[in-house]
Write a structure and sequence with these properties.
This protein is 41% helix and 16% strand. The protein is α/β, with parallel strands linked by helices. α2 crosses α10 (261-281), α6 (139-150) crosses α7 (170-179) and α6 (139-150) packs across α10 (261-281). The termini are far apart. The structure holds nicotinamide-adenine-dinucleotide. The site of nicotinamide-adenine-dinucleotide (NAD) has 25 residues, from α10. Nicotinamide-adenine-dinucleotide binds next to α10.
């Protein structure tokens, strides 16, 4: 039976440490501020934004959500980003993706001041991360790395398989594992034999968004299995990509969904906001 990696507990521990940083900043009259830009009415985005808002409130961080209608235009979004870049009370800017289809996401992300880019999607921050010179790291893969560290899962020289090649999760996850010394394989929807790759993984990170994709027969005995996927089961429950009940009997360590990577992503967002505040203010 695998060790269950408790993302909820670890995120609580990280937030507890962040409270100390926030208190110290406030004693110097520096009040961390996060702006979240939400355009349109995607239901999942609304839930993610409300969770992020709650975490900021819980920790006493000033946060403001800018809600734009789904028919907002490029100029309106770009003007808002410029205003937030110049707002000294705002240290972190997060644009909730996806933006409505007619908005050019790339232009919006590139307009964010890299020092305020708490999602770490700006090309400058992506470049820094790739070259092993990052200041901040994308929240979800950063949360996974914290989990591996906390549970003393060895990375150096290990075979890591990342499923998914998005700019938000898969690619930065692969880069971070590579920088940490793993031999990394990235699989995606066009990969010929997913099972053959997974079977070799000492560390398997699944970020495909496909319920039931990872079954027990794909897992090397003792592997660490990190489930980033968020899917809805037929009865409306939140489930990951991994068949948790069966995989836990083969894996050495495994993250549940919910209560795994999700809370870690939010903790990392707060951590990045504090880091950005320090970079900008101290
Ligand atoms: P995405 O749709 O941009 O990317 C999915 C990737 O999975 C693609 O690269 C695709 O090629 C690959 N893929 C799809 N089907 C596959 C298959 N059958 N075999 C192999 N690869 C396959 O999604 P994303 O933004 O990277 O998010 C991935 C998942 O992680 C989603 O379920 C999302 O909701 C979840 N997510 C969770 C968190 C969190 O905090 N837990 C954060 C971000 C995303």
């Amino acid at each position: 039976m695998a060790c269950i990696i408790d993302g909820k507990a670890l995120s609580g521990k990280i937030k507890k440490n962040l409270r100390v940083d926030i208190k110290e900043l406030k004693e110097r009259n520096v009040f961390p501020g996060l702006a979240v830009v939400l355009a349109g009415d995607d239901p999942a985005s609304k839930i993610y934004v409300s969770n992020k808002e709650k975490a900021c409130q819980e920790l006493g961080i000033h946060s403001k959500v800018y809600r734009l209608n789904s028919d907002t235009n490029q100029a309106e979004v770009m003007n808002l980003i410029e205003k937030l870049n110049n707002d000294s009370k705002i240290h972190g800017i997060l644009v909730q993706l996806p933006l409505p289809g007619h908005i050019v996401e790339k232009e919006v992300i590139e307009a964010i001041d890299p020092k305020k880019d708490v999602d770490c999607f700006h090309p400058e921050n992506v470049g820094r991360m790739l070259s092993g010179n990052g200041r901040m790291f994308p929240c979800t893969p950063a949360g996974v790395m914290e989990m591996l560290k906390e549970y003393e899962i060895e990375i150096v020289g290990k075979d890591a398989v990342v499923i998914g090649k998005s700019n938000i999760v898969g690619k930065p996850m692969a880069a971070m594992l590579l920088n940490a010394g793993a031999t990394v394989t990235v699989c995606h929807s066009r990969t010929k034999d997913l099972k053959a790759h997974c079977e070799k993984a000492d560390i398997l990170v699944s970020a495909a968004g496909k319920a039931g994709l990872i079954t027990a027969d794909m897992i090397k005995s003792g592997a660490a299995v990190i489930d980033v996927g968020i899917n809805r089961s037929e009865d409306g429950k939140i489930i990951g990509d991994v068949d948790f009940e069966k995989v836990k009997d083969v894996a050495g360590a495994i993250t549940p969904v919910p209560g795994g990577v999700g809370p870690m992503t939010i903790a990392m967002l707060v951590k990045n906001t504090i880091l950005a505040t320090k970079i900008l203010s101290l």
